[in-house]
Structure formats: C-alpha cells, structure tokens
Amino acid sequence: MTATQPAIVNTLTTGRLPKWAPWALLAGSWVVMSAVFALMSAGGGGDFNIALAIFLGTVLFDVAIFVIAYLVEGARQAKNRLVTSLVATAFIIALLPLISLIFTVLSEGLHRFDLQFFTSSMRNVVGEGGGALHAITGTLLITGMATLISVPVGLLTAIYLVEYGRGPLARAITFFVDVMTGIPSIVAGLFAFAFFALVLQDPGIRFGFGGSVALSLLMIPVVVRSSEEMLKIVPNELREASYALGVPKWLTILKVVIPTSIAGIATGVTLAIARVIGETAPLLIISGFTASMNYDLFSDRMMTIPVFVYTQYANPGSDVQAYLDRAWAGALTLILIVMALNLIARLIARIFSPKLGR
C-alpha cells in the first residue's frame, strides 16, 4: 500500500483578497481608533486628537492587513502587502499635519462661518457680531493688483531667459531671481514702506497699493521660475516647425510656445498667489489695519484676511471667545480662497491647454 502523497500547494495560486479589502480595512481601522479616542475624550473631557487617531488607526491597519493576508494569501503575499502598507503609512504620516490643520480650522471656524461674517465689517463692533467683509475685500484687491504687477513681469522675464537670454545679463538675472526667492517677507514689506515713504514724503504712509508692491516682490521670483521651467519643456521641434513656415520668433512664442505651456504657467501663477495671499508681516507694515471698508488701493489703510486673523487673535477684547471665533472663521475663509484659486487654475489649464487629436 503506497503512502499518501502530501498535496502540493502553489503559493502563487492560493486565495486572494478582493481589491476593496485593503481600503475597507484601512477605513475600518480609522473608524475604530476614532471611536476609541472619541470615547476617551468624552470621558476625560479632553479634546479629540484626529492626527493621533489616524496614525494609530494606520498602524492597526498595517498589523491587520499582514495577519489577514497571511491567513488568506500566504506568507509571500502577506510580506508584499505589509511593505505596501508601510509605504502608504509613510505617506499618511506626511499628511497628518495637513489633516490636523484642516480638522482644527473646520471645527473652530464653523462657529462664525455665517452670513453676517461675509456681509459686515468690524466698524463700531467691540464684542460679538461683526464680520470680515472689509478684510476679504482688501485681500482680493491687494492680491489682485500684486498679480497684475507680477505676472507680466515674471512671464516676460521667463520668456527672455528661455528664448533670448544669453551671456552675462541672463546669468545676472538668474542670480538675482534666486536671491529674491529667499527674501524674507518682512523685508519686502520694509522695502515697500521705505520706498513709498521716501517718494511720497510721508513717514507714516499706509495704503493698499504698497501692500501689492510688497507682495509682488515675493511673487515675481516664483512666477519667473515656474514659467521658465514650463517654457523649457516645450519641444524645440514645435519652434523649428513654426520657423520653417516663415513665422517670426515673437509670433512663434505668442502662438506656439505660450499656448503649449499655458497649463503649467497657470499652475505656477496660482502657486505664487497662494504663496503670498497668507502673508501678514509685509501687509501689517505697509497696508496697516482698519475696522472699516476701503475700496481705494491708493488711499488710507486697508485690512486683509491674514492681518484680520492676527489682530483678532492678538488683541481680543473683553469677550475673548468672540474674537477667537472670528479669527478661526477668517483662517477658514483664507483656506477656501486658496482652494478656489487652485480650482480656477485647473479650469484655465483645461480650457487653454492645446487639444491633441488622434
């Protein structure tokens, strides 16, 4: 009688987890740890720590996916899934500050995120009520003027460096653009204040256009660098084909090079705006702050959202909570404006990017 041969198990054809299993397991781990932390915060009276809950939930997911994959798929696939989950864990850890920031701003800022906040200013308001209409208007006006100054200058500089620039002048421009990239924002504000104080002979000058000039100093190097990189990746074959048809260089740049790279240029401009829209120090120096509406960039002080948040948080009145609520609502408004700018940039890139047919 022959002995029974042991069954041969092919580890490559063993059971497989469905594709949705890792995602479901990750979401379940986050829900479990969030519930645990919610119960602990409710029992102990502390605050809910979303970052720690997501981190420990991700660690629980790493352990769970390895164990389940080992039982269902075998040791080989379990090791593969463990390494993949560790890579995902590193990515989630990098996102934890952003997650914590968004959660905190939403939880604190929604208390005053109402109609009154967007339809009234802080004029004659010393306690509850009031809004940030004057700050929102000032931010849009100052940032818009800074964009009008920075985009033409930055884009033309990038075109010169890529299409025309050769020799010492191009190297000097590149060097100074690199230097401007590292300028502290408060230095830009001091420069704008000193410049206009000397030119206009007014040592106490405060006005919105000065803030636009200060922000443009911070925007121009970002626009130059991003636009330069986008122009460089335009294939030379496109330029040569245009030249072969007898099209002059300036028209080739206008009709071929810029439309081909417009998507990246729009993204770079949006990043430049996002870089400066939250600046506080230069605007506090040259634009000042006020509780009233001001639509004139060239006259009187003008409030902006970052300065509004700073003043509400740093100088609270007798009703401290009302000031803090307005500060958090202002921070949430600023984040939403940056998100809207990113969406607009993507829309511009989709509309104006070259259409490639089959």
UniProtKB/TrEMBL annotation:
Transmembrane parts of this sequence: 20-42, 48-71, 83-106, 132-161, 173-199, 205-224, 327-349
Entry-linked CDD domains: TM_PBP2 (cd06261)
Keyword NADP: no
Membrane topology: Multi-pass membrane protein
Main location: membrane
Pfam families hit by this protein: BPD_transp_1
Keywords recorded for this protein, A-Z: Cell membrane, Membrane, Phosphate transport, Transmembrane, Transmembrane helix, Transport
Intracellular or extracellular location(s): Cell membrane
Function: Part of the binding-protein-dependent transport system for phosphate; probably responsible for the translocation of the substrate across the membrane.
Name of this chain's protein: Phosphate transport system permease protein PstA
Source species of the chain: Antiquaquibacter soli
